[in-house]
């Protein structure tokens, strides 16, 4: 079995340094699974790609060199400024960040505070990402001055009773600095990490060489799970970023109280190698300085236990968390219903999902298929002005009314208003047949829409 088969999709970066080039892409899109580009040949058709790779590597080297010459606090402040500017040019990503925060901290903060947190976490994320260009060039002695470990005794205790240790850091703080922590781990234990190769082979070769110099063994998604568990049984420490969304192959668990799918790979590795596991917080203590805090994982060390510990780690400093990916995005379409995604209905209480049933313009004879009804979902209905309420509705649904005629912007404003009318965000929209304006409006609001009939 490979890591991919065990339910882990490759991430854009996992315990390896990708530097400042990640900043621009991270501010416009969340980490996602990308197709690996084939190695270019000398064909003239591939020459533009090779020149692009060279240009990226040159810019990366230049930025890293300049950042290495500046004090870490200055590099951090520059990153904050870049994040503050980028905030104004990424409306769709702003909605994703706020949606994540509304789910994670539902009932803990009001909307105004969550909006403030969304803006501040954008600045903090940019600062942490930009700082990786600085910390990558520091010596081990310099790393010791900017990174503190609060409870190293948990690592020593874990390794005293088990052959190996799985470390679970979320995408949080300057998480790249974790790969420079080899000196603080107990001697005699090899260090390994999961990573996704960069699309740029020139930069990837540099990253791999740098990690091998630091003594870290890299595992990819295609490596056999037996290889990783063998590494752990031999006393190794393996880091894996497992906080982000996986597809339908993931295991259904509650994360921050919301049903979602998570990778079972960490718990599989722990159980098969009989190792211990700890989650890690990476907290910004001051500009250019971070602290690491370990958190135990409750037994029996299943996927739900791992995700619960990751939640504790992220709550240690919410502003340091990378909230740019739609962590609780509902992956549904015509062939994959909400029952397929959320699994069988259970009496388990938590933060429910919220769906918008768009009936404005739908035929009076149409009704929601039973396969799209789930106990974990709160359904709200949108009707056009003057449209009668369908008799098949239960009677307790919240009804929203919109004008019978409206363009994309009017629909977008209507969706945004409905979305903010409750504490939890709209997770997806269901409709009989979505006209193009509605589809585009939902896309701009970063809300999935499923049209259950042929589009008009």
Strand content: 15-25%
- Poorly predicted tracts of residues: 8-42
Helix content: 25-40%
Q: Structural class, judged by helices and strands?
A: alpha/beta
Biggest sheet: strands, sense, closure? 7 strands, mixed
Principal-axes shape call = globular
Any idea how many domains? 2
Number of helices: 14
Distance between the termini: 44 Å
Give the ordered list of helices and strands: HHHHHHEHEEHEHEEEHEEHHEEEHEHE
Question: Count of DSSP E strands?
Answer: 14
* Strand arrangement, major sheet: 1-9-8-2-5-3-4
The whole-angstrom Rg is 23 Å
Query: Residue-averaged pLDDT, rounded?
Result: 86
Description:
- The structure is a single chain.
- The chain has 456 residues and is α/β, with parallel strands linked by helices.
- It folds into 2 domains: 21-320, no CATH class; 338-451, Rossmann fold.
- The protein is 38% helix and 16% strand.
- The chain contains 14 helices and 14 strands.
- The strands form 3 sheets. A 7-stranded mixed beta sheet has the order 1-9-8-2-5-3-4.
- The radius of gyration is 23 Å and the shape is globular.
- The model is unreliable at 8-42 (pLDDT under 50).
């Amino acid at each position: 079995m490979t890591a991919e088969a065990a339910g882990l999709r490759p991430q854009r970066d996992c315990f390896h340094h990708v530097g400042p080039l990640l900043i621009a892409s991270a501010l416009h899109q969340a980490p996602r699974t990308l197709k690996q580009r084939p190695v270019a040949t000398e064909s003239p058709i591939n020459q533009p790609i090779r020149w692009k790779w060279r240009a990226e590597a040159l810019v990366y080297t230049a930025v890293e060199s300049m950042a290495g010459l500046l004090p870490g606090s200055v590099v951090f402040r520059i990153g904050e400024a870049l994040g503050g500017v980028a905030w104004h040019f990424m409306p769709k990503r702003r909605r994703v960040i706020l949606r994540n925060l509304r789910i994670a901290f539902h009932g803990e903060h009001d909307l105004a505070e969550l909006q403030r947190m969304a803006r501040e976490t954008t600045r903090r994320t940019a600062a942490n990402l930009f700082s990786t260009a600085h910390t990558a060039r520091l010596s081990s002695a310099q790393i010791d001055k900017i990174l503190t470990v609060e409870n190293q005794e948990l690592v020593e205790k874990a390794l005293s009773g088990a052959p190996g240790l799985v470390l679970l850091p979320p995408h949080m703080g300057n998480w790249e600095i974790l790969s420079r922590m080899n000196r603080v781990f107990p001697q005699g234990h090899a260090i390994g990490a999961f990573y996704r190769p960069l699309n740029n082979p020139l930069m990837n070769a540099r990253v791999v060489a740098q990690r091998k110099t630091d003594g870290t063994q890299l595992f990819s998604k295609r490596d056999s799970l037996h290889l990783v568990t063998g590494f752990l049984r031999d006393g190794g420490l393996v880091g894996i970023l497992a906080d982000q969304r996986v597809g339908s192959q993931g295991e259904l668990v509650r994360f921050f109280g919301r049903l979602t799918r998570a990778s079972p790979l960490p718990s599989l590795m722990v159980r098969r190698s009989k190792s211990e596991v700890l989650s890690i917080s990476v907290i910004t203590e001051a500009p250019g300085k971070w602290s690491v805090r370990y958190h135990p994982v409750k037994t029996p060390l299943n996927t739900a236990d791992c995700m619960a510990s990751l939640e504790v780690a992220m709550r240690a400093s919410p502003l340091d968390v990378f909230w740019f990916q739609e962590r609780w995005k509902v992956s549904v379409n015509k062939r994959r219903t909400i029952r397929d995604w959320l699994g069988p209905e259970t009496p388990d209480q938590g933060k429910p999902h919220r769906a918008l049933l768009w009936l404005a313009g739908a035929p009076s004879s149409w009704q929601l298929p039973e396969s799209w009804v789930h106990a974990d979902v709160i359904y709200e209905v949108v009707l056009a002005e003057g449209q009668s309420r369908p008799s098949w509705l239960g009677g307790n649904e919240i009804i929203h009314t919109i004008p019978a005629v409206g363009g994309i912007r009017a629909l977008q404003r209507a969706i945004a208003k409905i979305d903010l009318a409750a504490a939890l965000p709209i997770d997806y929209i269901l409709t009989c047949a979505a006209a193009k304006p509605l589809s585009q409006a939902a896309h701009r609001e970063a809300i999935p829409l499923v049209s259950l009939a042929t589009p008009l």
